[in-house]
Amino acid sequence: MSRGGGEELKVGRNQYEKMGSDVTMLCGALDNSTSVTWKVNGTDVKAPHRVEGPRLLLTRVNSSHNGLYSCFQNPHGERRDSINLRIGRKCTTATRASPEVDNGVRNQHRIMFLECFIIQ
């Protein structure tokens, strides 16, 4: 996708994480020794974090951490990757599956468990 002026607009990949967890985001396929800077929604990351080479580590994330994180390779500031971070909570629900016929006998006690992710 491109904006006016020929500049390419890169849409980030999605990363879903559980509320309260520690999160690591990796800047593309860069070497561990590569120095990068990170921005969220175009501004410096203000939440408590650590940068270890191409990795951004956030602790005890909550919904305020949602956003588009972009990493830039130093020293020239070339954007290398973008990640759309979504914080939510996992849930599990049970539902009855359609009855199955097993050897001519209808099995109505089959329960299916579904995992879901609720975005805050």
Provide a descriptive summary of the structure in words.
This protein has strands spanning 13-18, 23-26, 36-40, 43-44, 49-52, 55-58, 67-73, 78-96, 100-102, 105-107, 111-119. The strands form three sheets. Strands 1, 3, 4, 7, 8 and 11 form a six-stranded mixed sheet that branches. A three-stranded antiparallel sheet has the order 2-6-5, with no helix packed on it. It has a single domain, classed as Immunoglobulin-like. The protein is mostly beta strands and 120 residues long. The chain contains no helices and eleven strands.
Assign a percent range to the helix content.
Answer: under 10%
* Total separate domains: 1
Averaging pLDDT over every residue, what do you get? 80
- What structural class do you assign from the helix and strand content? mainly beta
How far is it from the N-terminal to the C-terminal residue, by CA?
Answer: 28 Å
CATH topology: Immunoglobulin-like
Protein name: Ig-like domain-containing protein
Domain Ig-like: 20-71
Organism: Knipowitschia caucasica
InterPro entries: Ig-like_dom, Ig-like_dom_sf, Ig-like_fold, Ig_sub, Ig_sub2
